[in-house]
Amino acid sequence: MKPKMTLKRIAKELGVSISTVSKALHDNKEISQENRDKIQAFAKFYNYRPNNIALSLKNKKTKTIGLIIPEIVHNFFAKVISGIEHVAKLKGYNVLIAVTNESFDKEVINMELLVHSNIDGFIMSLSKETLLNRDKHHLQETINQGIPIVMFDRVVDDIDCDKVIVDDLEGAKIATQKLIDTGCKKILLITTEDFINIGKLRTQGYLEVLRENNIKQDPSIIYRVSDMGNLERKQEAIEEDINKIFDKVSGIDGIFAVNEIYAITALNVARQRGLRVPEDLSVVSFSDGILSQHSRPSLTTISQHGFKIGEEAATLLIDRLSHEDEEKEFRTKIIKTELIERDSTR
Amino acid sequence: MKPKMTLKRIAKELGVSISTVSKALHDNKEISQENRDKIQAFAKFYNYRPNNIALSLKNKKTKTIGLIIPEIVHNFFAKVISGIEHVAKLKGYNVLIAVTNESFDKEVINMELLVHSNIDGFIMSLSKETLLNRDKHHLQETINQGIPIVMFDRVVDDIDCDKVIVDDLEGAKIATQKLIDTGCKKILLITTEDFINIGKLRTQGYLEVLRENNIKQDPSIIYRVSDMGNLERKQEAIEEDINKIFDKVSGIDGIFAVNEIYAITALNVARQRGLRVPEDLSVVSFSDGILSQHSRPSLTTISQHGFKIGEEAATLLIDRLSHEDEEKEFRTKIIKTELIERDSTR
């Protein structure tokens, strides 16, 4: 049985990247004329139909949403999915989900796969590699071909589409201020690298509040976790890093962690070092998942309202699909965060 | 734009169930000749292609696995997905996921959707409604049409296909024996209703161990949770029920809960009632998720090895897809459980 030709196979056969094949098939001028001709001829020979041909079949609606998420183990994405499914069910839509595992190639392949499955539109949160690469041709071309995209949480500014974002800056400010208000003087920030927009904004919120309170920022207590790899193995490495910071810097009395996993890891370190939470050390997390509720001590946290994000994203997409003939302005919905006080702060 | 005809739409138009339409289109004799004729004519008129016609397009492999799971919020399914994705990536397969939210109709619709997306085969864990209904025509017909299915965790005996199951009976026996060995005399069982096979087997394991240890079984401390509804709202109701059992029955010194959520809920009740865990009350859970690790006290639990289940399921499916010309016996892989001792037992 002859296997079906795919982007991946073409890329492999011709020894080029998936992105190059995808761009060439969309006649993107970034690829040399020679390479475009070669790749297009190869695809044609193998009867490969790129998205824009699939699209000519797209005059029938399938009432299916394609959902692309970077990972599945974070409870936040599970909540977003529940919110999307809730609205989809009410409106008679189905949802097909694909996971990128933070890979750019997987994101491109999954979009291709779902377009071939005749989904009507996408809801997506970008992979870390996509944010890092800044290669976004697959998003723009999907939109150009008339398939709407709603981005949530991990979005990029330079693609025009509907977006649902959390007020990360404001949330981080509330979290940091809470620590200061309860007497913390030396607050360790555990955050992501800056190419992740949400990590960057949360870092910025932390820094702004320090400034507002006339506290000098100290680079030795800003820990940027590089986490492109496996989550579970990473947790040990993060634990080690936090321990090293506590070894070097004395007097840390507060921690603001930009996600639950980092916060839980910080709680583990506190336990190992005999620090009482919240008496010796206060911890505030970001995103109110199942871990924050059930860890001991339970975590004071900034709620991201994942379910609501999912509901809003599905509503925006279905609304756009139902009024495709109208030219609607793209909208960005900002979901307000909220401080949920539990036992990890004074 | 004319909407595409779907099973759901046909069912609605003709005022019959999705199951009836699906059966009629597969010429299932359970449906009267008259109704079959009517439904088939209607589908034909609207140019609806049921699975078996879609199948004539299926001589090209897409290297895509369709994954159908009952829910997304349980960490167990997230782990299974990670295991499936891991093997799929190694073997060059993609995965599309659909969630049934425990609904039979959603299961049938999602399978249809994925067959139309030209997936090569299914990996699935059945919805509670499917287990309850005992309507399985959609599974048998999919298999008859040459699309292999691998079932995991929530399986049914009377469908011949590859299966991956956890040794639930053995796991429950280990859990119950652990409680008895550490001195528990009155063990509350928190389990599901019996139509869920895994709940039934775990209940059976509990009862067998009681018998082996000459402990009389007491129906007042066997609590069967009926949980067809919303998980989060249910948790409060479960908490209330457990409290009522503690009000009525004195001397409960052990709890075996068949999943993490039930175990965590039991810990909450213990806290409310001033019972110390494990001094006054020991708790053993089933399935080693993120909650068991991070609750306080952390939970002694039976590990289900979700990642491994996912790996095995994907391996079985891809193996079958790669040797489609051979007549292979169906296999059932049993994943051994393991006791992980933490702080909730003495």
Please characterize this protein's 3D structure.
2 copies of one chain form a homodimer. By secondary structure, the first copy, chain A, is an alpha/beta fold. Chain A contains 14 helices and 12 strands. In chain A, the strands form 2 sheets. A 6-stranded parallel sheet of chain A has the order 2-1-3-4-5-11, sandwiched between helices. A 6-stranded mixed sheet of chain A has the order 7-6-8-9-10-12, with helices on both faces. The radius of gyration of chain A is 22 Å and the shape is elongated. Chains A and B meet through helix 5, strand 2, helix 6 and helix 13 of A and helix 5, strand 2, helix 6 and helix 13 of B.
Topology:
Two copies of one chain form a homodimer.
Chain A: H1 7-14, H2 18-25, H3 33-45, H4 51-54, E1 64-69, H5 75-90, E2 94-99, H6 104-116, E3 121-124, H7 128-133, H8 137-144, E4 149-152, E5 162-166, H9 168-181, E6 187-192, H10 197-212, E7 222-225, H11 231-248, E8 254-257, H12 260-272, E9 282-286, H13 290-294, E10 300-303, H14 306-322, E11 332-335, E12 338-340
Parallel strand pairs in A: 1-2, 1-3, 3-4, 4-5, 5-11, 6-7, 6-8, 8-9, 9-10
Antiparallel strand pairs in A: 10-12
